[in-house]
Design a protein that fits this description.
Elements (H helix, E strand, L loop, with lengths): L10 H8 L5 E7 L8 E7 L17 H14 L2 E7 L1 H7 L1 H15 L6 E5 L10 E4 L7 H22 L7 H4 L5 H10 L19
Helix pairs in contact: 2-5, 3-4
């Protein structure tokens, strides 16, 4: 039996649209595994019946494609939202709960209010809005994939701006992830105010 050419990334949306839900929000976050920078979440609501096949997991889309898709998503969506979970929230709540609460910030920001949530991952916070968690949802749901693209474009641009302040860590390319260059710079220069001190940074030295 031949495999299908591409996954049906509208399977969940289509079912919910058919059940009468008009405002379905896809939610995703980026930056959980980074040593520096905020975690960033995004939420996207599309008009029922919207189909943009090019939208898929942000990690498998080139930077050039992501930038184009990000603008297309913003124009096509009924509503979209991007929020940050800052260093204080990450250190206080831990990265998992900071990520979940940052996604909830997107939900709280949305108008019209979402009627159903499609959430990337395997857990979410308690919500009065019905939701479904989808493991690897950014490759299974167009709405979640769209959110992943918005969040990644926003966060990558933010980390490239911060790179100009601290070029030693290579944030223009690693965007805060623990690459050899990043870890070497931490040992040599110490950590900055943008680093997550509850993570294993490999150094106890704070940068002046």
């Amino acid at each position: 039996m031949e495999k299908s050419e591409k996954p049906d990334r509208l399977k969940f949306e289509r079912r919910l649209w058919n059940e009468g839900y008009s405002h379905i929000a896809g939610l995703d976050e980026v930056g959980r595994g980074c040593l520096a920078g905020p975690v960033v979440a995004a939420g996207v609501i599309f008009e029922p019946g919207t189909d943009i096949p090019e939208i898929r997991d942000s990690k498998v889309v080139t930077e050039k494609e992501r930038l184009k898709l990000s603008e297309r998503i913003k124009k096509k969506a009924i509503f979209w939202s991007i929020k940050e979970g800052n260093i204080h929230e990450i250190n206080e709540l831990n990265i998992l709960w900071a990520s979940l609460h940052t996604m909830q910030k997107c939900v709280d920001d949305m108008h019209p209010n979402p009627e159903y949530l499609l959430v990337d991952g395997n857990r979410y916070i308690s919500s009065l809005i019905p939701y479904t968690c989808l493991v690897k949802g950014d490759d299974r749901s167009m709405s979640i994939a769209a959110a992943s693209i918005l969040a990644k474009v926003y966060r990558d641009e933010l980390m490239k701006e911060l790179h100009n302040k601290y070029p030693e860590y290579g944030w223009d390319t690693n965007v805060g992830y623990p690459t050899p260059l990043h870890k070497k710079a931490l040992k040599q220069f110490g950590y900055t105010k943008y680093h997550r001190t509850t993570f294993n940074l490999g150094t106890q030295k704070k940068r002046p």
